[in-house]
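On clarity, I found the account of how folds are encoded harder to follow than it need be. Since the whole study asks how a given chain folds, the encoding of that fold should be made plain. The format is easy to grasp once an entry is in front of the reader. For illustration, here is how one protein appears when written out as sequence plus structure tokens.
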Amino acid sequence: MKARPQSATASASEVDPGALQDVLQALADPVRRSIIRQLAESSAPISCGSFDLWVAKSTLTYHFNMLRSAGIIHQFEQGTSKMNLLRKDDVDAAYPGLLDSVLAATASESHS
């Protein structure tokens, strides 16, 4: 039987979407925007090792921590993997339209 992924909403131990400055800082980096884009395009959680990115594993850990501490992603363990979900509903509730705007800009960046 396949384990059902946890909800993308915050648990009691998780950070709510942070101050606008923290969220914008987390979204300013192209690696983190790529992570957000890939999560937004996926209908299922993505393990840390499955992202199509161009940086070292240790650098990825830093980027995932930035996104998690800003309240943009939810991470949970599934077997030996750390899985990631975009907390779009939570971020949209705090900052309506922000993620949609960032995702639209990121899509146009990748086509330039």
User: Anything to note?
Assistant: Residues 20-107 form a domain with the Arc Repressor Mutant, subunit A fold (CATH 1.10.10.10). The longest strand covers residues 73-78. DSSP finds five helices and three strands in the chain. The beta strands are 46-47, 73-78, 81-86.
